[in-house]
Design brief:
Residues 1-29 form the signal peptide. This is ABC transporter substrate-binding protein. InterPro entries: ABC_transpt-TYRBP-like, Peripla_BP_I. The protein has helices at 6-16, 68-88, 103-115, 126-135, 171-181, 197-213, 225-237, 249-253, 255-264, 274-278, 289-306, 326-332; strands at 4-5, 30-31, 39-40, 56-63, 91-98, 120-124, 143-145, 162-166, 187-192, 216-221, 242-245, 269-271, 283-286, 315-316, 321-325, 344-348. It is of the alpha/beta class. Helix 3 (103-115) packs across helix 4. The strands form three sheets. Strands 10-9-11-12-13-15-16 form a seven-stranded mixed beta sheet. Strands 2, 3, 4, 5 and 6 form a five-stranded mixed beta sheet that branches. The chain contains twelve helices and 16 strands. It is elongated. The protein folds into two domains: 4-167 and 288-316, Rossmann fold; 171-286 and 320-348, 3-Layer(aba) Sandwich (Rossmann fold).
């Protein structure tokens, strides 16, 4: 098993593929399995070269489902592909699909992408990555996954045609934030989905941390939006002092439906990604998903142009960014200035995107 920090990836990429520049945001072109609108991302050079003469690469970007984190990553991947096409005088055509959190739909998308002869697939989130890896097995089409918290547990390592980026969560840092804000915490709610591979290790780490501190915890699991709402209500009824959710796609998809009730009950919701916080959760310490998406696109370009031989199993995106929802903090009556000593503090407000 190999892994590398993305700083090393960027250094490698600059040597292997010319001018791999980072960009911050981009346009979104979502499609479903039956609605595929192609985005063309390069124009002919001013020196008289026609668009048809440019090298052309085709990529399928496959989100596990639609929600803020995965949308942010997909948008960042698309924007960086646009920039790479411009900088390297090539054409990159990409489609963005949503698997609707359904394995059968994801398999259909993957099989069609392979039949269409794509040069790479960029799956976003664990189930999407696992399904795309199976779809690409016969052709060995490069699969460049994004936002896999534990690639080893997801069995995405030691595969010649697979690499990607990891948003591995520093669970202990989030626990430290929780105690820094409220040293008198007695009971922590753990809200997550049993179907999410991303949640297994962070939840185990949270339990170990809380056990070591002698702090009780109450677990509630859910696999649908309605179940998340019911689970959150149960934790409110149990009067937990705070709630922790890792980078769990199921809970993230329901965050807008639960954040107000949690805040009104005086329960801060600590989560594994800033997209939760932008949808109303209280705080997180994690990676910037726009940066992760951009880095994933860089990695895909290297795989298509220089091959997979010199690439690692996966690349860990640096975290340490503390994001706080100021509106939720006001509802909770919490002074979050204590977090300034724990990392880079970013303030956001609630959006419904």
């Amino acid at each position: 098993m190999k892994k590398m920090n993305l700083k090393k990836l960027v250094a490698f990429g600059c040597a292997a593929a010319m001018t791999l520049s980072m960009v911050g945001c981009g346009s979104k072109a979502d499609t479903s399995a039956t609605d595929t609108t192609t985005k063309t991302t390069a124009e002919a050079a001013d020196a008289g070269q026609t668009e048809e003469e440019l090298p052309v690469y085709k990529i399928a970007i496959v989100k596990q489902l639609d929600h803020a984190s995965l949308d942010e990553i997909a948008n960042a991947v698309a924007a960086e592909l646009d920039q790479l096409a411009k900088d390297n005088n090539v054409e990159i055509d990409y489609d963005i699909y949503s698997g609707q959190n359904d394995q059968t739909t994801l398999k259909q998308i993957g099989d069609q992408a392979i039949a269409d002869g794509v040069d790479a697939i960029i799956p976003i989130a664990t189930l999407a990555a696992q399904v795309m890896t199976v779809c690409a097995q016969d052709t060995q089409t490069p699969v460049i996954f994004a936002a896999i918290s534990d690639p080893e547990a997801a069995e995405l390592t030691d595969i010649d045609y697979v690499t990607g980026t990891s948003d591995a969560l520093d669970t202990n840092k989030i626990m430290e934030m929780m105690l820094a804000q409220n040293p008198d915490i007695k009971n922590v709610g753990l809200l997550y989905s049993l179907s999410e591979a991303n949640s297994a290790k962070p939840i185990a780490d949270a339990k170990a941390y809380l056990d070591d501190k002698g702090i009780a915890y109450t677990e509630q699991t859910a696999n649908t939006n309605d179940e998340v709402i019911a689970a959150a209500s149960a934790l409110v009824a149990d009067k937990v002092d705070a709630i922790f959710t890792p980078t769990d796609n199921v809970v993230m998809a329901a965050e807008l439906a639960i954040y107000e009730d949690l805040a009104k009950a005086g329960i801060p919701h600590y989560t594994g990604a800033d997209s939760f916080v932008r949808n109303g959760a209280f705080a997180t310490c994690g990676v910037n998903y726009t940066d992760l998406g951009s880095q994933t696109a860089d990695l895909a370009y290297i795989a298509m142009t220089d091959g997979m031989n010199d690439l690692e199993d996966y690349y860990v995106t640096e975290g340490g960014i503390i994001t706080v929802n100021t509106e939720t903090a006001a509802t909770l009556g919490i002074d979050y200035s204590v977090f300034k000593d724990l990392g880079t503090l970013v303030e956001v407000q609630t959006t419904e995107e």
